[in-house]
Amino acid sequence: MGDLFQGSSWLRHGTIVDRSTVGSRTFTGFHVVLRYADVGSGAQIAARAQLLGTAARRVTVGDGAWIGAGARIHPGVRIGEHAIVGAGSDVHEDVPAHTISYGRPATARATVTTRFDQGDGIEGVLALVRKRQERDTTRLAPDRPADPEAFFDCAADLGQDVSVGRAAVVIGRPDGPSPQGGVSVGDRTRLGDHLVAEGGGGLTIGPDVTLAEWVTVTTSTHDHRTAGRPWTAAPVHIAAGASIGAGATLVGPLRIGAGATIAPGAVVTRDVAPGEHSKGVFG
Fold it and tell me: Could you read off the pLDDT of 142-151 as tens digits, one per residue?
């Protein structure tokens, strides 16, 4: 109750909206939480971000701001216009306009110098989505039973004995914003419960890989050096035998080497060498 959405905004599967307002031309990714939040026009909120305001201390996001995947915004925080919050950040203090902030807890790291006009907002991507043919969004394979909590909209190349967990989200098609879009999964690979795998920029997973529950993989970004922050492909490649811990976030462009391990809860934004153990950028 009390929620308000303005025109041309995009709200994706699994998002929770509670007493919040969202301006026009705003993108909200999979399984986002908007609770007592006021989001301006042209904002971009990536998968699993949480805006956790209260009735007394609402969260405010300014026009054109960008909230990275899995970021957590605490009560009373104000994100300024055209500010950027990095993936996986834990934000307890206000982020000034035109500032890049990240970390746990998040701190200001740099200034955004590009003047944004939002000329390349989400309208172009939405137009592509509306034009393309609809596909089955309940199954990765014809014999897979429907899962009402899942969302599958992908061109998938699956190996033998691949398992996909409950309530998973898997997307990525070459008729989207990038011809690289699609998901390839090798033999005997396990995709855990509540996985979010956004393969719009291309996602390749080798054989014998484990992605544990609540893992998030994003293969796209928005180029903050260019006015309007246009969508940009950022492929992710995970080589054979790698293991991705529960709740980890992988942000492309990125390569995870064969046999590498990623710690639970890690945010990984750089390549991981074969056999390496990574705690991510906040480890």
Answer: 666 678 788 8
